[in-house]
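Human
Can I borrow your eye for a moment on a structure tokenisation matter? Give me a protein, with the fold worked out from its sequence. Write it directly below this note and I will take it from there.

Assistant
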Amino acid sequence: MSTVTITAADINKLRQATGAGMMDCRKALTENNGDFEAAIDWLRKKGAKVAALRSDREAKEGVVLAKTTADNKSGIALCVSCETDFVSKNADFVAFAQSIMDAAISNDVKSAEELNNIAINGQKIADLVNDKLASIGEKIGISKFERVDAPYVASYIHGANRMGVLVGLSKESADAGKDVAMQIAAMNPVAVDADSVPAETVAREKAIITDQVAADPKMAGKPSEMIEKIAAGKLGAFFKENTLLAQAFVKDNGISVADYLKSAGGVTVTEFKRVALG
């Protein structure tokens, strides 16, 4: 057993450095004979064990952020997840998520894996996440990461950090960027236009629609060509409702998003990303 005297000041110092609980800090220092650095490592290992124990827990709450670089040429959207809304609404946790976002932007990060290896004040983000996990006792992590690069990128955060949107445009247009980002947040399109809908999505929708049409009693005995024609029409309706440019513009249902963009100076959408909790 350690003969080193662990003082309240030692415990407080470790607590301030790691965010871990007082009892955990006392035990970490006791187990490591008062060695401060070894105690920090011990707490990280404890955090990793907590993460393993909580691997089957669902972390559907958290903080979603979306931010662009100063020149608006790139944008990042990410979610730092946790288990409860009590934690997600905590000012310290929101600030923690914001520090991760700031590091992502300032280091021009391209992926979540790269982000976890970026250092803030000398500590890797992965280690900071582990320390935070140990201190709050919930499963947390960078659960979602998206990036958009374009001639102009707009960002939008909806619903108290519950959703973030990035929109890449062909040229600078702050108003169009904000309006289209709000459209994406509200209507959740699957792609920019029909041509950019993933092939597997088109195939799935076509199969479902064709089966629905064929199962209609009114279609009994009808030739397959007629069924396919009706299904094609319904697939067109799917594209109109679920692709960005074809959707009715939320600010004016009398026009499509494509029409709105034409009126905004012919700006076009290159891509978009939508990150939401859950």
In short: The chain has a mean pLDDT of 92. The longest helix spans residues 224-242. Residues 28 and 41 are 9 Å apart (CA to CA).
